[in-house]
Protein backbone atom coordinates (compact mmCIF):
# COMPACT_ATOMS: atom_id res chain seq x y z
CA UNK A 1 0.00 0.00 0.00
CA UNK A 2 2.82 2.43 0.86
CA UNK A 3 4.58 1.96 -2.48
CA UNK A 4 1.31 2.57 -4.36
CA UNK A 5 0.89 5.93 -2.63
CA UNK A 6 4.52 6.80 -3.35
CA UNK A 7 4.07 6.02 -7.02
CA UNK A 8 0.88 8.09 -7.17
CA UNK A 9 2.61 11.05 -5.51
CA UNK A 10 5.58 10.71 -7.91
CA UNK A 11 3.21 10.69 -10.91
CA UNK A 12 1.44 13.79 -9.61
CA UNK A 13 4.75 15.62 -9.06
CA UNK A 14 5.93 14.68 -12.56
CA UNK A 15 2.63 15.83 -14.08
CA UNK A 16 2.85 19.18 -12.28
CA UNK A 17 6.48 19.65 -13.36
CA UNK A 18 5.56 18.71 -16.93
CA UNK A 19 2.74 21.23 -16.94
CA UNK A 20 5.06 24.00 -15.75
CA UNK A 21 7.68 23.11 -18.37
CA UNK A 22 5.13 23.04 -21.17
CA UNK A 23 3.70 26.41 -20.06
CA UNK A 24 7.18 27.97 -19.98
CA UNK A 25 7.92 26.58 -23.45
CA UNK A 26 4.66 27.94 -24.89
CA UNK A 27 5.21 31.41 -23.42
CA UNK A 28 8.82 31.50 -24.61
CA UNK A 29 7.68 30.53 -28.09
CA UNK A 30 4.99 33.24 -27.99
CA UNK A 31 7.56 35.86 -26.92
CA UNK A 32 9.70 35.00 -29.93
CA UNK A 33 6.61 35.14 -32.13
CA UNK A 34 5.63 38.61 -30.85
CA UNK A 35 9.15 39.94 -31.41
CA UNK A 36 9.09 38.49 -34.94
CA UNK A 37 5.72 40.16 -35.63
CA UNK A 38 7.06 43.57 -34.59
CA UNK A 39 10.11 43.13 -36.81
CA UNK A 40 8.08 41.90 -39.78
CA UNK A 41 5.86 44.98 -39.52
CA UNK A 42 8.93 47.20 -39.06
CA UNK A 43 7.51 48.54 -35.80
CA UNK A 44 10.94 49.06 -34.27
CA UNK A 45 11.01 52.81 -33.76
CA UNK A 46 8.61 55.29 -32.25
CA UNK A 47 8.07 56.75 -35.73
CA UNK A 48 7.09 53.33 -37.13
CA UNK A 49 4.89 52.29 -34.18
CA UNK A 50 1.75 50.32 -35.08
CA UNK A 51 -1.58 49.64 -33.44
CA UNK A 52 -2.36 46.21 -32.05
CA UNK A 53 -4.83 45.78 -34.90
CA UNK A 54 -2.18 46.55 -37.52
CA UNK A 55 0.11 44.02 -35.87
CA UNK A 56 -2.65 41.41 -35.67
CA UNK A 57 -2.32 41.19 -31.89
CA UNK A 58 -5.76 42.38 -30.83
CA UNK A 59 -7.75 39.89 -28.74
CA UNK A 60 -9.84 37.38 -30.65
CA UNK A 61 -13.60 37.18 -30.15
CA UNK A 62 -14.84 34.82 -27.44
CA UNK A 63 -16.17 32.13 -29.76
CA UNK A 64 -12.98 32.07 -31.80
CA UNK A 65 -10.91 31.73 -28.60
CA UNK A 66 -13.20 29.02 -27.26
CA UNK A 67 -12.80 26.83 -30.33
CA UNK A 68 -8.99 27.02 -30.58
CA UNK A 69 -5.96 26.21 -28.51
CA UNK A 70 -4.85 28.89 -26.10
CA UNK A 71 -3.01 31.82 -27.67
CA UNK A 72 -0.10 32.85 -25.48
CA UNK A 73 0.76 35.98 -27.49
CA UNK A 74 -1.28 38.32 -25.22
CA UNK A 75 0.68 37.03 -22.21
CA UNK A 76 3.94 37.37 -24.13
CA UNK A 77 3.06 40.93 -25.15
CA UNK A 78 2.35 41.82 -21.51
CA UNK A 79 5.64 40.27 -20.38
CA UNK A 80 7.54 42.26 -23.02
CA UNK A 81 5.70 45.46 -22.08
CA UNK A 82 6.50 44.92 -18.39
CA UNK A 83 10.17 44.48 -19.35
CA UNK A 84 10.00 47.73 -21.39
CA UNK A 85 10.94 45.84 -24.55
CA UNK A 86 7.62 46.84 -26.13
CA UNK A 87 6.97 50.56 -25.72
CA UNK A 88 3.69 52.45 -26.17
CA UNK A 89 3.33 55.88 -27.73
CA UNK A 90 1.01 58.54 -26.33
CA UNK A 91 -1.63 57.63 -28.91
CA UNK A 92 -1.54 53.93 -27.98
CA UNK A 93 0.61 52.56 -30.80
CA UNK A 94 3.29 49.99 -29.98
CA UNK A 95 6.87 49.47 -31.09
CA UNK A 96 9.76 47.17 -30.28
CA UNK A 97 12.62 48.93 -28.50
CA UNK A 98 15.66 47.07 -29.88
CA UNK A 99 17.94 48.69 -27.28
CA UNK A 100 15.84 47.36 -24.41
CA UNK A 101 15.54 44.02 -26.18
CA UNK A 102 19.33 43.76 -26.42
CA UNK A 103 19.75 44.27 -22.71
CA UNK A 104 16.86 41.95 -21.80
CA UNK A 105 16.97 38.19 -21.29
CA UNK A 106 15.55 37.76 -24.82
CA UNK A 107 18.17 39.95 -26.48
CA UNK A 108 20.42 37.20 -27.75
CA UNK A 109 17.67 34.81 -28.76
CA UNK A 110 17.62 33.48 -32.30
CA UNK A 111 14.36 34.86 -33.67
Strand arrangement within the widest β-sheet reads 1-2
At CATH level 3, the topology of the domain at 29-102 is: Arc Repressor Mutant, subunit A
Order of helices and strands: HHHHEEH
The number of helical elements comes to: 5
How does CATH name the architecture of the domain at 29-102?
Orthogonal Bundle
Helical content stands at 55-70%
Beta-strand portion reads: 5-15%
Low-confidence stretches: none
Shape: elongated
Rg over CA atoms, rounded to whole Å, is 19 Å
Provide a descriptive summary of the structure in words.
The chain is mainly alpha-helical and 111 residues long. The protein is 57% helix and 5% strand. The chain has a domain at 29-102: Arc Repressor Mutant, subunit A (Orthogonal Bundle). It has a two-stranded antiparallel ribbon. A hairpin with a 5-residue loop joins strand 1 and strand 2 (94-96).
Task: Show the helix and strand layout.
Layout: H1 2-40, H2 52-55, H3 62-66, H4 73-82, E1 86-88, E2 94-96, H5 98-102
Helix pairs in contact: 1-4
Which features would summarize this protein structure in a list?
111 residues, mainly alpha, Arc Repressor Mutant, subunit A, two-stranded antiparallel ribbon
Short description:
With 111 residues, the chain is mainly alpha-helical. The protein has helices at residues 2-40, 52-55, 62-66, 73-82, 98-102, and strands spanning 86-88, 94-96.
